[in-house]
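step 3/5: co-fold with EPZ
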Amino acid sequence: MEQYAIKGGTRLEGEVTIAGAKNAALGILAAAVMTDDEVVIENVPYVSDTRTLLKAIEGIGATVRYIDRHTVSICGKGIAHDDTLCVDDEYIRKIRASYYLIGALLGKYKYANVALPGGCDIGARPIDLHIKGFETLGANVEIIAGGKIVARAEELVGSHIYLDTVSVGATINIMLAAALADGKTTIENAAKEPHIVDVANFLNSMGANIKGAGTDVIRVRGVEKLHGAFYSIIPDQIEAGTFMAMAVATRGNILIKNVIPKHLEAISSKLIEMGAKVLEYDDEVRVMADGKLKATQIKTLPYPGFPTDMQAQMAAALALADGTSIVTESIFENRFRYVYELIRMGANIKVEGNSAIIKGVKRYTGAHLEASDLRAGAALVIAALAADGVSFIDDIKYIKRGYEDFDDKVRNLGGIMQLVTSDEEVKKFKEDYK
Ligand code: EPZ
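step 4/5: write tokens
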């Protein structure tokens, strides 16, 4: 059993350094297998999602060398590119983003065999747009018995692809396959998230020819082959945003280091509407809140709109604001499960369709909570740190998928948060902080 034990009520103050962006790293690690040369990637966040994807990459025959906790060398030369090539479903079941190996392997070997990702707690999350992109490039994609996707092509020919829905995953997966296709591919209505730009920059550092990443039209001119590279991943916009919301919910004062302030603009502006102060420096932001918080409205949108991955964390802070806030989730169909845990802590929230109506309350009280997904778990940590009393959070495996050394970082900010793994430790924590 692994839980976070938290004693709330402390204003978080001090400095925290943000790790590399998980959602950039997953696309970049998959792309690294597209060359037979060695690729060295720095600032890889030490989280279970990246560790799992690296195991999947080793599992298909690539050589992976951990140079240090955040730097890895990958060489795709040893991948068995014949019918035995198959990404085992144990990895896909752990992280959906293993599906980036379809685009990477299809691009490089014109063949990929990867288990089909399931849905998850925040929605159905189909991959029809990924498949549409691969087929438009000339691949034959079929789902075979055992829930595997097999994609193969005589050759991949650059094409014009319009994404009916803005999709981060489909944009990245199609970019991977198109990088080694013959001719020019245009991806219209592409996602513009910072991690899309990071994956495109990484591919270009390997010799790809990709222009327009970060806009809604990405142009890929296929090249013969890709070569080795040395690359450093951008900081994680959502980890940074999580600590910004934590500063506000606990009325603290936190200097968040190793960030790109431009990536945080939507988050900063909402926190300022709530009455927080946000000071921007070159690669740091300071977030302070000391008085009453004000209600505001949030609607999640593709970048540069307000990020859906920050929706739960902001709701946890808004539940303590004066007045009524409305949070609307426009990306996923089921991303309010955390609300019922916040209600158990005293929050006053009603979910109506794809909106949460949040009536601010004076305080949370600690409770025994359950994390349903990665960002919901982060929201519960924020609420528990702001609550009166002690909270225990179960299922923290979700949180550890995307937050490196989360409890250490919170403790360094003065928060009382421990990883507990036994009933004795739970008992002791209760004794120490009753
Ligand atoms: C990525 O998921 C992120 N995951 C998610 O972060 C993030 O919430 C999401 O983008 C939106 O920003 C990674 O990058 C590993 P989408 P992804 O394709 O690519 C629909 C986290 O917390 N859609 O942009 O799966 C889909 O159902 C995670 O780190 C289709 O209909 O998201 C959704 O409604 C959670 N068909 C919308 O598009 C498709 O083929 C956006 O999804 C693909 C997507």
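step 5/5: annotate
The chain has two domains: 3-19+235-432, 22-232.
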